[in-house]
Amino acid sequence: MASLADVLVRQLLDGRHIASLATENPDSSIHMVAVWYWFDGTHVYVATSSRSRKARNLQSNPKVSLMIDARDPAASYGITVAGTAQIPTADVSRKSNAEIHRKYLSEAALADDRVGPVFAAWDDVTIRITPASVIAWDMREADRQFFGGVLGGNPAYLLPLQR
Q1: Is the pLDDT of residue 10 over 80?
Q2: Which of 10, 50, 96, 143 could form a disulfide bond with 45, CB atoms 3.0-4.6 angstroms apart?
Q3: How many domains does the chain have?
Q4: Residue 2 located in a structural domain
Q5: For residue range 127-154, what is the model confidence (pLDDT) as tens digits?
Q6: Enclosing domain of residue 49
Q7: Residue at 154 is within a domain
Q8: 84-87 CB contacts, 8 Å cutoff, 24+ apart
Q9: What would the pLDDT profile of 108-130 be if each residue is shown by its tens digit?
Q10: Does residue 157 lie within any of the structural domains?
């Protein structure tokens, strides 16, 4: 089990990556979607619409999982944060969503009337995740321990990911 204070965990939470958020649908299937996020040192925040499936799912079940993967086959590492989620007040949501948008959009995009206000209108609520557990993996360490560094040191072994 990892901790929010671990270097690798903080690197991913503080970085600009795409995360996958999982919530439970009413039929007990899993709804998983790519999201932007922001970490304040205690909670993870995800901007969304109050009409989104993920926001509606949280009304009946607050359990969530968030996975962040570096998505680099030569340096594959990531984390999964599991916990409970809440939808904070409108004021907190506006402030948190602004932080998320500043993390992923340039100042020019935020200032553009065709972009900044559209994101602000779409994302009218925030999902605030209180982490209960953190799992981390680092295939670079596994490569060193089990393969003698041959996977990361030999670009012919790992095929490139499609983007």
Answers
A1: yes
A2: 96
A3: 1
A4: no
A5: 999 999 999 999 888 888 998 888 877 7
A6: 7-142
A7: no
A8: 84/129, 84/130, 84/132, 85/23, 85/58, 85/127, 85/128, 85/129, 85/130, 86/58, 86/62, 86/127, 86/128, 86/130, 87/50, 87/55, 87/58, 87/125, 87/126, 87/127, 87/128
A9: 999 999 999 999 999 999 999 99
A10: no
